[in-house]
Amino acid sequence: MTFQLPKTSVAETLAQKIVALKAGDLPMSTTRKCEDLLIDVVGLCVTARNEDYVTSALLGSDDDGPCTVIGHKRTLTASGAAFVNGTAAHGEDFDDTFEGGPVHAGAVIVPAVLAACERHNPDGQMALIGIAVGTEVLCRLSLVVPKAVHKAGFHPTAIFGAMGAAAGVGTALGLDARQIVDALGIAGSMAGGIIEYLAEGAWTKRLHAGWAAQSGIRAALLARQGFVGPRTVFEGVHGLFHGFAHTTDGDYEALTGDFGMRWVTDTLAFKPYPCGTMAQPYIDCARRLAARGVRLEDITEIVCEVAEGTVHRLWEPLASKQRPRNGYAAKFATPYLLAAGFVHGGVGLGAFTEKAIGDADVLALAAKVKFVIDPQNPYPASYTGHLRATLKDGSVVEERQPHLRGGAQEPLTRQDVMQKFALNALHGGWTTAQSDATLGLLAALYNGRIDLSTLRN
């Protein structure tokens, strides 16, 4: 392979645009999205705080320090806190999604920047710009070679998350352009995350966000002290896209072209259901089918039109998606999720217990769900849903969902985000008084000093 080293690399172009930004430059829409991200991620950390995987992550950490693990008395180093908080925030698959990716930004960037600022620079305005920049970088990276990272067997949130966290933490800590380039170059060697968790519902997807968050902190701190990373980390012959997308040809303008002038962060979607994003419009279709008065016993078959790019994660092997082996596997099994939405009128955190995944009615309907690939499906630009139900009397009932609820076409309001927080906090064992006090803290966090000590319970 031959590669002419560029005079100015992609990372250098990006870093120059990053350091030119100030918190006061953010559009109000982007600031509000970062406020929503803060509320959502903290609520997700609370809702998962007593789950077994969070307990394991915390017990497996031996780096005690001064930083807050949300919902716990124990404190860790900045990297340790970012790891546990990121793992918790992503653990129930209830976190935000960037529809163009798909990637999950909040569970990576918010824990990374909060921990770094709490330890090294407790300035709310710097946390705000850091979260905005980190989110924007993570999301835009997913547009360079769409679908290729998933196809290669990697989790885009894990791969691009390390890079976004490095950029976000670097911004929040006031790194200069050269240091941000080094941070990105270093993070490229820390990125990783295979999607083999799909085989049996293993826990590793949950740690991908936390690992990316702590990697970003370590990369930024190393760069701040002069550690050198490759400036061609993105486009190089042996760069990030070569390693994780099997190509160096990509739309790098999607990353740098109008960075800082147009914010794709504004389009982030907040999930209505705690499960795989692309399955959510199918749940809505199933709920509408039930609302039309269709009875479970009248359905002989359901066929769904789906995007080819989602099949290997959400639809195959079909038998395993119709009868998932555990609650975590069920989060990525569209036939099960669709059936649960039909039978129970929705899909909540309780849909993934061992008892819930054995529900006879849900499994009976899931066994009737099949799929066909729609070559015109717009994924990953947008996520749609469809089902065609054939009934015993020979009639056919069809439902379509043109977009993801909670996304750009039908966004959640601030009140919706706060209500989701309250429900998550309640599920995590917090009182209403604790929830209200935390919402008050978060409302002012970007305008003052980062102090998360009240979240340690």
TrEMBL record:
Residue span(s) of domain MmgE/PrpD N-terminal: 12-248
TM stretches of this protein: none
Similarity comment: family membership: Belongs to the PrpD family.
Record domain MmgE/PrpD C-terminal: where: 273-425
One example GO MF annotation: lyase activity
Protein name stated in the entry: 2-methylcitrate dehydratase PrpD
